[in-house]
Amino acid sequence: MIRTITGKALALVAAISLVAAAAALAEVSVYDNDFSSRAEFSEIFKSGGGKECHRRYRAKGRAMLVSVKDGDTTCSFRAPVMGDAELPDHSVIVDGRVLKRTEKSVRGGAFVELTVRAGGGGVGYSLRVFPQKRRFELRRGPAGAGFPAAGTSEAINKINERNQLRLVATGARVQAFVNREEVANVTDPDPAQVSGRKVRFAVGNAKQKSKDVVATLKQVAVAVPER
What we know:
The chain has two helices and 16 strands. It has one domain: Jelly Rolls (Sandwich), CATH 2.60.120. The protein has helices at residues 7-19, 38-42, and strands at residues 3-5, 27-33, 45-48, 53-58, 63-68, 73-83, 90-98, 110-118, 124-130, 135-141, 149-152, 163-170, 173-178, 181-187, 198-205, 213-225. By secondary structure, it is mainly β. Strands 1, 3, 6, 8, 9, 10, 11 and 15 form an eight-stranded mixed β-sheet that branches. Strands 2, 4, 5, 7, 12, 13, 14 and 16 form an eight-stranded antiparallel β-sheet that branches.
C-alpha cells in the first residue's frame, strides 16, 4: 500500500511541530524505517534490477542485505510514500554500507544511491556515492543544466563503513549531503522536467565485471521541508 503525502495531513503535522521543539528542524517527518523488524523490511518495494538483485532481512544487524550479481546493474527499492502534487518537496535520508565482502575488483564501481522526485524512465534527482573513491555524483533525469554535479569529499567513509546520504529538494533547489556535510547545491533552471513523486534508493555496480557487490541499508527516513 502506497501512502500519499496529502496537503491536509502535512498541514496538521506542521501545526503540531510548530508547537514542539522539533519545529527547529524545519521538517515534518512522514515516514521512518530502521528495519528493526521483518515487518518493516517488508514495507520496502523492489523497483529495479531484475533477477541480478537479491535482498534479504538481516535480523542480527537489523538491516536489509543487498547483493548485486552482475556488472553495470542498479538494484533499486522504493519507500511506501509519495508526493501528492507536482514538484513535491522532499528531504530523504538513507544509511548504506558497502561491505568488505564486495569483490576487490569492483569496489571502485560499487555505490549507494538515493533518488527523490523519482518517476519512470530514469526521472528524478539522484545522489550516488562511491565509498572506495570517496566520490559523489548528483544526477538529474532527464539531463539538464548544472547536472551532474560531481566531485570527491573526505566526508565520505570508505568500504565497510556506513555513509548517510541525504537529498533535499525544495522547489527548484536540490541539496546533497553525505554524513551531514553538504557536497552539492544546485538550482535547476527547469525543475518541471523532473516530474516524479516517489522516493527510491539503490545499491549498484557501475563496472562491467560480473562480481558481487554486497551492501546493507540500515535506515530510510522521509520528511517534508517547511518553507
